[in-house]
Amino acid sequence: MGEFIKNRRAIFGLALCLAAVSCAGRAAGQSDYTAITVGDAGTISGIVRWAGPIPKIPRLPITKNAEVCSPDGEKTRDLERLVIGADGGVANTVVYLKNISQGKAMDLPDAVQHLDQKSCRYIPHILLVAQGTDLQMKSSDSVLHTIHMAGAASNNIPFPFQNQYIPIAMRRSGVVDLKCNAGHVWMNAEVLVVKHPYYAVTDNHGFFKLTDVPPGEYEIEAWHEGWRIASEQKVLDVGSQVEVSRPVYSEPITWAKKVVVRKGQTSDVQFSISEN
Amino acid sequence: MTWTRIRILLVATAILWPSLLSCSGVFAQQSKIGNLTGQAKRGKELYGRYCVGCHGSRGDGEGENAAYLNPKPRDFTMGLFKCRSTPSGSIPLDSDLFDTVGRGIDTTGMPRWLPLTPQNRADLVAYVKTFSGRFVEEKPDKPVDIATETPVTPESIQRGSEVYQSLKCFECHGEKGRGDGPSASSLRDSKENPIVPYDFTIGTRFKCGESDRDLYRIFMTGLDGTPMPSYVNWVTPAQAWDLVHYLRTLQADYGEKSKTADHKGLIARR
User: Fold this and answer.
1) How far apart are the C-alpha atoms of B75 and B127, rounded to whole Å?
2) What is the DSSP track for A79-109?
3) How many CB atoms lie within 10 A of CB B90?
4) Do A181 and B188 touch (CB under 8 A)?
5) pLDDT, tens digit, for every residue of A227-245?
6) Quick one: pLDDT at residue A27?
7) Closest to B168 (Cα-Cα) out of A148, A181, A177
8) Phi and psi of A130, rounded to 5°?
9) Over 60: is that where the pLDDT of A146 sits?
10) Which of A257, A271, B89, B177 is 20 to 30 A removed from B39 (C-alpha atoms)?
11) What are the residues whose beta carbons fall under 8 Å from the beta carbon of B31, sequence distance 6 or more?
12) Buried b (16+ CB within 10 A) or exposed e, B114-139
């Protein structure tokens, strides 16, 4: 019995160690970023540019609710999967730091956490939401929309009434694809549910900026949703009983670089993305 | 090994056991339905005998019969389930999966597995959960409340028809509930397979039950993996019951069927 009492402390120690080890993998997956007070910080900015010939962007016909979906009379809508400005800048690219474990507290702009459905278009097209917080969604349109999520969330929410925000908590990090099941098959958007604030979406000039970055060397990555039609899916239209084809888009693409951030300085990073 | 060492080992095991269980996903290998505890190990054997033909050995819905089925068998690896008591986006309760196995899904190839004992079904639920990491990483949300049913009156039915219009249910289900609304032919499920909205007039059971409470639950939780969304944010409980009462009037032969129905929910209603 004496030996037992002597060993009890060792047993508890062993238990705690093993419990910690068994939980470590999950804990790392849940929270591997710590918000700290960032003092001597630097900035990263740059431009994502298109290289090479500009590809033909597919457009889909506006087949439903034209009075609401097409106020300017357009007959087709592109899916906004690749938006290249006149100066060659690529919009809607997400640029982020990959290997950052501590830095500023979450400060994602409101504009990228609020989704509107207007003229049968998702605005903005790319959203950033901090893991564990709400994505706020509303519809400005008088027609029915539904937001059907796939990927890191699977909620399916209708919007029968205008201008009422519905919050949905984004619990898992990752990419969430949005589509509308109310006949507006061209509507699509992407939500990135993120664990830290060092994410930016490029503007129409391809410009991005990450501020308050602690000095150090980082891997910086640009992410763009797939824009190529990878294949055509033939399916039977259950209404007309006619076989129709639907485009299947390529997977998202990423480009990675190294960047060194120095106190009080702005580091320039240029990305060049192309068809190949 | 001395007796003391055996005791040390036993104590260490007792201390470690809860942490190992909770952190290694062991709970996902089990199901709890009331007093029943299902074990995935036993469920695996049953699955190999009864389920694998459609749902596939990997649980991805690619069993050898899948090519002949429409709708396609559920892909368990996605962790998406139509018939839940929990809100849209949440994993189901174990009891939701248990109910689905016993109830089957009418208008699909999924039969009612009532010949299997409740213990068998609980074991199958435990095994089905092992195909998706969601059952390890997530906890189900609190089930959507189902308020006490309001009286069925002509006024309630009239109000329900107005709710049907304002929520724009007709977009998919059609003005008369025939499943022929303007969006019906464009619908795809989460695997991009074509899918049709429910036709109330043909009088088959709903995919997720047949009682008034089941109907209430269906449009409040939505059917995840299908285009049917969750209306819980948009109607009050009273409006939801009005809608249930109206939807019943779209089922033209509902009264006739209820005379022979074996479900107490159906019998109780009329």
Assistant:
1) 14
2) --S--B-TTSBB-S-EEEESS--EESPP---
3) 23
4) yes
5) 988 888 777 665 667 777 7
6) 37
7) A181
8) -70, 135
9) yes
10) B89
11) B37, B38, B94, B97, B98, B122, B123, B125, B126, B129
12) eebebebbbbbbbbbbbbbebbbbee
Q: What is the DSSP string of B98-157?
A: HHHHHH--TTSS----TTS-HHHHHHHHHHHHTT-THHHH--PPPPPP-PPPPP--HHHH
Name the residue in chain A with its Cα closest to that of B23: A23
Instruction: Look up tokens 């824009």; give the residue.
Output: A227
Residue of B nearest to A235 (CA): B194
Residue range B89-127, pLDDT digits in tens: 999 999 999 999 999 998 889 999 989 999 999 999 999
A4-35 burial by CB neighbour count: b if 16+ within 10 A, else e?
A: eeebeeebeeebeebbeebbeeeeeeeeebee
Structure tokens at B138: 């997530």
CATH of domain A41-274: 2.60.40.420
All structural domains of chain B, each given as residue ranges with its CATH number in brackets, are 29-137 (1.10.760.10), 154-269 (1.10.760.10)
Q: For residue A17, what pLDDT band results from cuts at 50, 70 and 90? A: very low
CB contact, 8 Å: A148 with chain B?
yes
Q: Is the ipTM here above 0.85? A: no
Neighbouring C-beta atoms of residue A76, cutoff 10 Å: 12
Interface of A with B in 26-55 (CB under 8 A): 26, 29
DSSP A18: H
Return the structure tokens found at A257.
């670089």
Give the confidence band of B253 by pLDDT, cuts at 50, 70, 90. Answer: low
**CB A208, CB A36: distance < 8 Å:** no
User: What average pLDDT is seen over chain B?
Assistant: 87
Residues of B (189-248) whose Cβ lies below 8 Å from A: 190, 192-196, 222, 224-231, 233-234
Cite the beta strand spans of chain B per DSSP E: 30-33, 36-39
pLDDT in tens, B59-76: 999 999 998 998 899 999
